[in-house]
Amino acid sequence: MPRTKICDALFFPLHDKGENHPSPNFNQYVREQGAVTDQLSRRQVRVYQLYSRTSGKHVQIHGRKVTATAEDGNTFARLFVETDTFGSRVRIKGAESGRYLCMNRRGKLVGKVGHR
């Protein structure tokens, strides 16, 4: 007995009265909204430890000094990853030191009190 396929399809018009609308530019919206604090979304804060494959240890923020020499569970290796924007920007803050993970002009990682 031959197999038959029954296919039901529903078609809905995308535009009323044949109007042609340009596609919205979502990239521009994401760029603009990611630059400012989002007052509508919930602020997200998660706790992580960053592992360095090079040293085989965890990254720690100990004052201004940032190293990858901490053992698993070290209090200075506990890092808060915070976000409060629409885009994907995050801030990384040491749970024990209270300092943010930043990069100086030479590209070296340092701990700073402010996040700017």
From TrEMBL:
GO molecular function: growth factor activity
Coiled coil: none
Recorded superkingdom: Eukaryota
InterPro entries assigned: Fibroblast_GF_fam, IL1/FGF
PANTHER family for the chain: FIBROBLAST GROWTH FACTOR (PTHR11486)
Family: Belongs to the heparin-binding growth factors family.
Name of the molecule in the record: Fibroblast growth factor 17-like
Species the sequence originates in: Scleropages formosus
Taxonomic lineage: Eukaryota, Metazoa, Chordata, Craniata, Vertebrata
